[in-house]
C-alpha cells in the first residue's frame, strides 16, 4: 500500500531507540494529543467498518499509537502499552490495535503479556470470552493491584469489575462475586451499586440459571477474520515482530 509507506516515512523515520524509553514512571497515562475523527473512517455500503480498506487518517492513527508505545514503554511493558494506549481509541483503528496486541503476544508465557491479552480479548465480545478468562486466570496471580495502578486505563477496581462481568456472562457467579468484592475493595466502598451487584450475584448463585450457548453470526465471524488479517498486515508493514 503506497499510501501507508508514504505516511511511514513522515511519521516513523528510522532512528535509534531513545534511552529515555527505559525510564520507569509511577503511572502511564494514555496519549490524548491525537485528534480522533470517526467521520474519516471508510465503511461498507451498509455502514459497517470496512477492515479491508483504510483512510489516510485511519492509517495515521494506527501508526501514531504504535510510535507512542515504542517511545513510552520499556520492552517488558510493551503489551500493556498496547492495552493502555488502545483503550481511548473509539473507532475502527481500535479493533486493529487490539488485534495487533493479541497477534504479537498471545503465545507469550510472560504473565504481563497474558494479562494484556486478557484485556484485549475482553474488548472483543462473547466470541472471545473464554480466551479472555483463560488468559486472565493464567496471569492474575502474578499481577498485583500495584502493577495495575501504573496504567491510567486499568485501575484495580476497573480490571476486577471487567472480569467480574465476564464471569457473570459465563455463568460463573461465584467468581463474578469474588471479583466484584475485590472491585469494591479497591473502588468506592460507599458506592451502593457494588452492594446491589453483590446481592444480585448471590441471588444468581442460588438460582443457577442455565448457561446459553453462544452462536456467533456469519457477519461476526467475517468481521473478526477481517480484523485479524488487517492486524497481520500492519504487523508486517510496520515490522512489529520485534516490538
Q: TL;DR of this structure?
A:
The chain is built from eleven helices and no strands. With about 240 residues, it is mainly α. The protein is globular and about 50 Å long.
In words, what does this structure look like?
The structure is a single chain. This protein is an all-alpha fold and 243 residues long. 58% of the residues lie in helices and 0% in strands. α1 runs parallel beside α2 and α4 (92-105) runs antiparallel to α5 (111-122).
What labels would you give this structure?
single chain; about 240 residues; globular
Share in β-strands: under 5%
Would you tell me the overall average pLDDT? 88
Overall 3D form: globular
Order of secondary-structure elements: HHHHHHHHHHH
User: What is the makeup of the main sheet?
Assistant: none
Number of helices: 11
Tally the beta strands: 0
Topology:
Layout: H1 2-11, H2 56-72, H3 78-86, H4 92-105, H5 111-122, H6 129-139, H7 145-148, H8 156-169, H9 173-186, H10 192-207, H11 218-237
